């Protein structure tokens, strides 16, 4: 017999014997969901612009020395950075080649739902990879665009958005938000509307 709850991965019904807070119908779905949610798009992983960072977001090389978001000699390949145990996590360096990140600060509620102002930006962005930030209550929208200088702006509804395209690194969690695709989309129209 089945209940009316659904598995978060396959969307099939949950077994009646599943615990009240279970999210997946079986271990296979739990493992598949974890792999999907912690995947960084190849458009980022194939670029050798990866670093590590401390808990306070100080950039580090894979060996643990101080890194720089403007010195390519301190960057590494994704596989090397992911294998390094230095610091608290991974970071990707934006160098002006067209990859941009829109950082939506404190936009998720305690249930992981985006605030209205953030939902408007997500809807406008369309199909592009979005990850949950390190804090767990923010989002990073990754895509393509031109943004010569970083900007921080306040949007309607009390939201704050940081826009970056060069001279900066972004802490990458790989925790995909919702069912966003594992690829980067065009974000120039969103950048233009925000600025």
From TrEMBL:
Recall the taxonomic lineage recorded for the source organism: Bacteria, Bacillati, Actinomycetota, Actinomycetes, Kitasatosporales
This protein's superkingdom? Answer: Bacteria
Q: What protein is this chain from?
A: DNA primase/polymerase bifunctional N-terminal domain-containing protein
All copies of the DNA primase/polymerase bifunctional N-terminal domain together span: 53-176
Q: Which InterPro entries match?
A: DNA_primase/pol_bifunc_N
Native source organism of the sequence:
Streptomyces filamentosus NRRL 15998
